[in-house]
Amino acid sequence: MKYQKILGEDAAAIVLSLSVVAYVASLFLTAIVDSHEVLPGGGVLLLGWLGPLAGSFAWFANPLLIFAMYFSKEKPSAAMLAVFFGFALALTTFGIKTIPSDNGDATVLGFGAGCYLWLACFPAVFIASFLSSRKSRALAPGK
């Protein structure tokens, strides 16, 4: 297998570890810039569950991503499915035009590195799950 030559024996674990580090880093970086303030990823994670009140469901990609991270090795097919739907939900982030706040609605001006790093976690976890599924098939008896 070519990927084993490039990344070593456990390529899936390396990719998954990098995605976990990227997810944690995204919490400390700017996620959204609006007309009132700069929101770090951690703040968006804490308050994002209120998104449906503003018509945004992107926050709900987080539980799917965490599920996929946790099960990427044991149940790679379920993890790939969860991360696929999670990524679709996460992409709805770009549909957010205003954010309700105490001072009235704030207009979204742009997205920061934290947002893009968070989004990059989805394909990374998909790749880790895919590599795990290939490894488990290669180790399966009778193959």
How are the elements arranged and paired?
Elements: H1 2-7, H2 11-26, E1 30-34, E2 38-40, H3 41-47, H4 61-71, H5 76-90, E3 98-99, E4 106-111, H6 113-139
Helix pairs in contact: 2-6, 4-5, 4-6, 5-6
Keywords: Membrane, Transmembrane, Transmembrane helix
Transmembrane segments: 12-33, 45-71, 78-96, 108-131
Structure in words:
Helices cover 57% and strands 11% of the residues. A 4-stranded antiparallel beta sheet has the order 2-1-4-3. The chain has 6 helices and 4 strands; from the N terminus they run ααββαααββα. It has one domain (2-137). The protein is of the alpha+beta class. α4 runs parallel beside α6. The protein has helices at 2-7, 11-26, 41-47, 61-71, 76-90, 113-139; strands spanning 30-34, 38-40, 98-99, 106-111. The chain is elongated, with a radius of gyration of 17 Å.
Regions with little confidence, pLDDT below 50 for 5+ residues: none
Cα Rg? 17 Å
Share in β-strands: 5-15%
Shape: elongated
> What is the domain total for the residues?
1
Structural class: alpha+beta
Biggest β-sheet, characterized? 4 strands, antiparallel
Kindly state the number of beta strands. 4
Please give the order of strands in the largest beta sheet: 2-1-4-3
Name the average pLDDT: 89
Question: Topology as H/E string?
Answer: HHEEHHHEEH
Distance between the termini: 14 Å
Helix content: 55-70%
- Number of distinct helices: 6
What does this entry show, briefly?
The protein is an alpha+beta fold and 143 residues long. The chain has helices spanning 2-7, 11-26, 41-47, 61-71, 76-90, 113-139; strands at residues 30-34, 38-40, 98-99, 106-111. The protein has one domain (2-137).
